[in-house]
Amino acid sequence: MTTAPLRGSDRRISPVFLGIAAVTAVSGWAAWTGFASNPGLAVFLFVTAAWIVSLCLHEYAHARTALHSGDISIGAKGYLTLNPLKYTHALLSIVLPVLFVIMGGIGLPGGAVFIERGRIRGRWRHSLISAAGPLTNVLFALVCTAPFWLDALDGVPDAFRYALAFLALLQVTAAILNSLPIPGLDGYGVIEPWLSHGIRRQVEPFAPFGLLAVFAVLWIPEVNHAFFDAIDAILRGLGVSDWDSYWGQELYRFWDSPEEVPPAISS
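That's the Site-2 protease family protein sequence above. Prediction below.
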């Protein structure tokens, strides 16, 4: 089977993604300068838009790795344009992950790209395609926390600092949760090529429910507390204090948070 080579339009960044990036930039500027009358609203827009940008980059990493691994149908599907509306479930690609953030302050993936696995040879390639998404979240988390672990926070406004901390929390939770070896998540996709055909057939029916199962388990108080204790420990290792991430989430929930930005504590 052959497929037409990539055209320029298959790789051109979509206006949808550029619009989301523009919202990220403008709201980030508003959080930095204090332009918004309610700093929480600026933080909400900045974190939400940046979170969607990271979702697009997560799926782009899957698609780009698949392309270089042999699935040359990726371009025609529009996955290289960074347009979230091109994903398998366009509505859930944006709405569901944002709802996860609003409801529980956790980053869970939503969008999905359809990869023609039959075109790809080699188990290592299949595993790398699945691992590319969570690795993108790890990279995003390192970028968000760079001012913290580089001790470069002098002059960074408190609202923007807290926004970065909360965005980093989302990236860390996304990387960890999506790396779990649970059907439907990328962690399972990493190990799936190494499983027997019989095990894969038995597990396949549970794939559509893996993400919802993870979210349901996190509602158990004991599990939730243990999970976020681990997340806080990772963030502290990256220089982000519990104070920073806590107030980041409080400002994000601007509808029930104080209008004044609390002062940052010294690192």
